[in-house]
Each structure stands twice: as structure tokens, then as C-alpha cells.
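User: My collaborator sent over this chain with a note saying "see what the structure looks like." That's all I know about it. Can you take a look?
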Amino acid sequence: MADKQFLTLLDLTATEGGDTAIGVVEIIQTFAPEFEMISGRPINGITYEVTRRRDLPGGNSFRKVNEPVLTTASKFEKILGECFHLSRPMQIDEALVTAQQAQYGGTVEDFLSSEVKAQLRKIAINLGRQFYYGKTVDAGGYDGLVDFVDDGVQMCIDAGGTVDGTLSSAWLVVNEPQGVHFTFGGGKGVQAGTWMKQQVQKFLADGKTLGTLPAYVNNLFAWLGLANNAPVTRSNKTDLLSCVRIANLDAATHCLTDSLVADALALFPIGLKPTHLFCTRVQRRKLQQSRTPVYASGTTAITAATPLQFPPTPTESNNVPLTATDSIDDTEDKVTIA
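Assistant: Without extra context I'll predict from the sequence alone. Here is the result:
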């Protein structure tokens, strides 16, 4: 398990929740690896305040005899972060449950668990996409990585693609308390209630008259936020940086390469190294294709029996661990980097 103060959503849920909630988080990981890869911290309440040093003290370090020096101090700014309420009400008609039991056997709990998995697939994908695209995915949720960069040359690398609707991005992320990390409101992870059977009101076919039906009801909920304690605008390479976007990747000639990743790494200050590189499966494949093939089994000549072998599926680039994800689109528009 990760450190209690900096841990994944699964870690926290396993600590604070029950088997049902843990299973839910494991399902989310299947579709959104960001929740497995990116750690965060539990907070008291649902908001937090951070004092961020904006500028170091100026002035000289040495003083001539009988001459004064300028008294200076750091410049600070306060930022307010918040968590957002994830809520997934679930309602399943009792008739559907009993019909499934009669047809396929099993228990009520088996069927309800299956329904939870099915309903979570779409919302899990949305949560993963929110990590990158922020409120364009769900206006009620947290900001994403696109909100943490200013589309300038100090925070973005241009891969060169130009055709709107065919592009993608790769992201280098610093996952640490001063960089990008999730925040878990109330010190808890995902929580699931107990399924209960109750009478639920619904409109009849006329759309005006209320009737009732017996149904199993439950709710899945959490308070989630995505924190970024680095500035979202940057004028020089000494400023703290939490993420870099390699934008305008396509599937033809402007693809992810180790050279582009190296260019992105050069934007980070010395001593600050990204912990993750995220890209689509298409771009991971293109990175693999960009690498030099290798001889088969130590042979010194290429023959029909000992051809060149294709490089293995990339797991890193420039020593930064790489994770392929379906949460990044291959249909982005061109990003203008200035």
C-alpha cells in the first residue's frame, strides 16, 4: 500500500471502505488507468488552500564594504482547491432482478453486482477523460491537464499535425504534492451504500400520472478533485512545472517519438523529473515503429531465417514510465502553440 498521505484511489478505498467499494474502484482502473497510476492525498473537508511561492527573493548576494544592498523577499500567492461530488444513483426494477434469477440462477447480490459494473463503465471512462480535458467532459467536475498548461512554448511541444479532428496528445506528468495529484474529500475514497428495496415513483405512459414500482436502489459517491500546485502560466524554464503537453500528434507523419519526449523533458527544471508519460494506444504503436529494429538472437547477418525483430512494445521513453490509455482522444483539434 502507498504512503497514507499520498496514495491512489484504490489504496484509500481499501483502507476506508468495504469490499463492494474496492471492487468498484478496480473496475474504474480497467477503463481509466489514471486512477491506478496517479496518487493523491486525503483532505479534511472538501476544499483546501495552498500558499504558493511565486517568485524567489531578488537582489545581490554579496555586499561591498560601506555599501548597502537591497532588502528583498519572496512573492507568494494563495490558491483555493476544491473537490467535486461524484454521485451515481442506481435503480433496478425488482421484476428485472427476479427474471434474471429465474432465467440464469444465482443470487440477487450477483445480479446487482453485475449491474454496478455495467453502469460504471461509461462514467469511469468519463472520469478518466476528465483528467485530461477537464470541464469540457463534465462541467460539474474538476479541471483537467488542459487547464494546467497555457499552450505556450514553455509548457507545450508541437508535434506538427494540422488536421482538426485527427490529432492527439501525449502528457508528461509530475505526480507529487507540489505537482499534479488527486484530492480525496473527507479523507475517504469511493463509497457505495447498501442495496435496498423500496417503492419508486415513476410516470405512467401518459407522462402525467404518477405510479409506483418496487426497485432495488443504491448510490455510489465520492468527493474527488485534481490538484495542481504549479503555476498554469510560465515565462521561463526555472518556474515550477507540473505537466507538459506534446500536442498535434497524428497517426501519419507527426507521431510520438523519443525525440519529442526528450524535447518535452528539456522544459522541466533540473532536478524535476516527470513520473508518468500518458498517450493513446495508437501513439504507443507509433513510438514502437519509430525505434530501430534489432537483430534476431544475437546474429550478425540478416537472412530469411534470422530477420530483423521489431522493437518491443514501449514501456518507457527517456526513462519516463509510459502508460497507454483510452482516456485521451485521437480526434483532437489543432492546438496553436505560441
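A starting point for your reply to your collaborator: The helical segments are 9-16, 19-31, 34-37, 94-104, 108-133, 258-265, 281-290.
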